[in-house]
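WP5 quarterly update. Target: Cadmium-translocating P-type ATPase. Source organism: Microbacterium pullorum. Length: 666 aa.
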Amino acid sequence: MNRMQKWVSGNWSVPLVSGVLIIISFALQRLADGAADLTVSPQWWLDAGAHAAHAGAVFTLGDAFMIAAAVVTGYGIVVTAVRSLTGKVIGIDLLVSVAAIGAVIIGNFWEAAAVTFLFAVGHALEAATLDKTRSALTALVAVAPDSAIVVRDGRQQEVPAAQVRMGEIVLVKNGAKVPVDGEVVSGTGAIDEASITGESIPVEKAAGGRVFAGTVSRGGFLQVRATGIGADTTLARIIHRVEEAQDTKARTQAFIDRFSGWYTPAVMVLALVAALVSGDVVLGLTLLVIGCPGALVISIPVAIVAGIGRAARNGILIKGGEFLETAAKISAVALDKTGTLTEGRPQLTDVVVLAPALGRSDVLRWAAAAEAGSEHPLARPILETAQAEGVGPQGVPGTVTPVPGKGIASEIDGHLVLIGNPPLLEQYGVVHDGSAAQVSQELAAQGRTPMIAAVDDKVIGVVAVADRLRADASEMVARLHRAGVQKVVMLTGDTLLVAEAIGRATGIDEIHAALLPEDKLHVVTQLQHEGYTVAMVGDGVNDAPALATADIGVAMGAAGSAVAVETADIALMGDNLLTLPEAIGLAKRTVSVMRQNIAIALVTVVLLLAGVFAGGVTMSIGMLVHEGSVLVVIANAMRLLRNARGATAKPKRKTSTAAAVQHMNA
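Structure tokens (predicted):
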């Protein structure tokens, strides 16, 4: 019974019933040619309409079935047209309704049935193919886990995934879906994160690693503490964002909607004038059918849905159609260095002692004590090395005052400890002989980031860290250029020497170093004033002003960041740099398909109108060609669901997503 109800309420039930009635009508009319007794002449119809008097014909049983076919498919169309009219919207359904009703009145029963049948078939095909273009969203929903194994009262229990409690320990066995976002507390395993990041290579997980709901264990056994459940998981946020994005209108789509608002009434006026001038009602009704802007109306949304769906399948979240269109125009890309061009996992490389009475451990101890309360990514390698060498800070860190673009100032046991660049020393009035600046320059020339350490009013040394360049950074820059980006710019708060070393290795076009957050904003604004459409790629912390000002804000490694998923114009869920040029290339292909679809729709209407006035194009033929153009438009958009050749090349080196997330949270 459920299957029968599902079929009756489906898209194909009405066209199928109508098609059967049309076939029966043709069969009866064929039989009527040789059997006059099948012909009936009901007086009620002859009195009610002018058809029989005008055509000199009688009403047949075959005609009754043809009218029934038109009513079956036309009823829903008329209802939709009336509802639209109550909302002061004149749409395509009204054109078809008027044409079909007019055809019945003048006795063109076949035309009425054909027009409504073809329109219903086209509508069903549109619905089916639009469902296919939303396949990425369907796939995301399908990977959502149904159940979870939790440890309660000292034993394993299987519960629905939605009933897992925050902080509970969840067991993830080989082959199972991860039911929650969480942190691995024990065990090791390999997790397939393709549903989140688009990367097919499983990522090794151990204690401290992050896992995401909807990913799949490919080996090992993990105990995971739940940190995100239900609607708070990364997967749920992705599904919500893709759902919203696919329903968001692009600027071109909004224009088409406004265009249809006056185009449809114009077609009705044209049909009325043509019928009155020529005296041919059929001509007017045919023009109504021919002028239907169905292909034009669907040309944009189907491309947007397919483009955003294709992107989501590859771990690229695009906020909506407007941002997809803007991304296609990107001509300049501004990149933050740390965590974007580099891995975001710097290592301590040098400890240079400049105070005669101190040693390496002393400089490292003061530097680590100052950095203990800092959230800056460069603090971690200093603290890790100090802990490893037994001079790490103990207890609660002292008061820390970040100085944007310069460093930090800390109060430790009554001492003022500074760690940063020469401008920081100048701000606090620390006098030095220039040796620290010279050492810093030498280290920077080697591609390292130096930080001068001072206690009270004396410089004690320089520590330096180096962040390894991503293996695919130079390939990303090359692909951006091939995707049509004219200028790739690096924005960093690091020194010019370090930035130049990175720039030479990657092929960056323009370098801006030693920048404060407001300086990055100024560079983005300047690029916009020069006529560039700018995409800013960063981590959303120091780069927040520039990300907000850029035409497109791009968040890297956003899988672990709820804020990035919700606020970024484009969120790259994994840490694969090559998805950035892929996103731009996909946007350009989507806009190209949108333009092709508009051209197909307009050319079809023009040719059909020409055919009507030239003769030979009937109402049914016009609707057939019209629905054909709708299918061509949809098929053209569905090409976006296929990967372009080489679009998703994998990085040369796989970086742990968990490490990227830890950097994002740092």
